[in-house]
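Is this the right way to post structure tokens for a design question? Let me know if I should format differently. Anyway, here goes:
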């Protein structure tokens, strides 16, 4: 009999395993043959503290110290630059204020990112306090933590059924039945389906596709020290990555849970929006891919026990903020499970609790 069975091996499931293994025995089940295969393996890998709703920002802030210090620190400097076209200044100022970005002299912005078009870009705002986040290092370090306390991490294990048996759950896979006191639903885009499998009412999660194109460095520029650049209203963004440039259309197309891929037309539209702001046309795309960012109906994360069945736990709805929030979110999960004092404000805990939907 296990204390916790975690379903899902992305950053949510792995961070839950690391924290809950302090409280009891843990088995994590992941359908794919590797961890972090879906959304977690296709992240923009940024830590921007002021990105998201109020509840997400609170989780970001509470996660920061862990990101800075744990495992030797997993953050490295990047910076975040928002750009807008002439005529869009009023909306851009409002968006910059909402994200705590400071207005930046245009000439300085053009020095930072020399391909920006000075005849088009009329407003720039910047935050130096934005960081690359080493997603692979975080996942692998959390896995080592969990395993050091006896957690079982099982990949290539699809859940076939989940049923109650007396005072516990039985999670059936193709290979075995696992009895557990608690089921932790960290299944990302599939979390509602996992709930229905267990006889729990779905919450109404929305998997939304986001695509990415990898481009060669424009005109041979050294892009490694460029900031991440985002267009007004997050209609596109560009981020340096290992000498190349990642450009995303930043779309949020509602889809069914699946192994996502990028659609050519969506990529083309995003690249066109990017090209509208720069002086260098896109002449070659190295590769494209897509992932699913899964949101709750109110776009806040869902952390805690289902009110109708308190031994079934939701740890879902990360909506693209999974890596940023993982330390504080998993801490809250473990605090609730262990009956310890919550370190987040009561109103934030309430904004994250599953019972807000019931």
């Amino acid at each position: 009999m296990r204390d916790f069975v975690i379903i899902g091996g992305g950053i949510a499931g792995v961070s839950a395993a690391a924290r809950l293994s302090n409280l009891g025995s843990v088995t994590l089940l992941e359908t794919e043959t590797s961890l972090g295969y879906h959304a977690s393996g296709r992240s923009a890998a940024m830590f921007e503290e002021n990105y998201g709703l109020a509840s997400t920002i609170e989780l970001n802030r509470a996660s920061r110290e862990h990101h800075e210090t744990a495992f030797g620190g997993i953050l490295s400097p990047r910076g975040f630059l928002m750009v807008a076209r002439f005529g869009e200044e009023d909306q851009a100022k409002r968006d910059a204020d909402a994200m705590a970005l400071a207005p930046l002299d245009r000439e300085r912005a053009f020095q930072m990112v020399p391909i920006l078009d000075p005849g088009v870009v009329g407003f720039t705002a910047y935050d130096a306090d934005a960081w690359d986040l080493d997603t692979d290092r975080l996942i692998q370090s959390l896995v080592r933590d969990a395993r050091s306390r006896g957690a079982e991490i099982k990949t290539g294990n699809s859940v076939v059924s989940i049923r109650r048996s007396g005072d516990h759950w039985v999670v059936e896979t193709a290979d075995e039945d696992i009895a557990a006191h608690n089921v932790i639903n960290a299944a990302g885009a599939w979390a509602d389906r996992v709930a229905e499998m267990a006889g729990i009412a779905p919450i109404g999660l929305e998997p939304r596709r986001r695509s990415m194109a990898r481009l060669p460095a424009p005109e041979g520029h050294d892009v490694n020290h460029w900031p991440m650049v985002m267009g007004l209203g997050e209609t596109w963004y560009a981020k340096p990555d290992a000498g190349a440039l990642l450009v995303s259309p930043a779309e949020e197309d509602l889809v069914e849970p699946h192994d996502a891929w990028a659609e050519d037309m969506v990529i083309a539209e995003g690249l066109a929006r990017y090209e509208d702001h720069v002086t260098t046309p896109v002449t070659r795309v190295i590769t494209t891919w897509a992932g699913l960012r899964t949101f709750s109906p109110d776009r806040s994360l869902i952390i805690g026990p289902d009110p109708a069945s308190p031994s079934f736990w939701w740890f879902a709805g990360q909506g693209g903020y999974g890596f940023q929030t993982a330390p504080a979110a998993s801490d809250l999960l473990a605090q609730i499970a262990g009956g310890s004092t919550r370190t987040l404000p009561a109103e934030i805990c309430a904004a994250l609790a599953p019972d807000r939907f019931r």
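Format looks fine. Someone answered above. Worth noting: The first strand starts at residue 2 and ends at 7. The mean pLDDT is 97.
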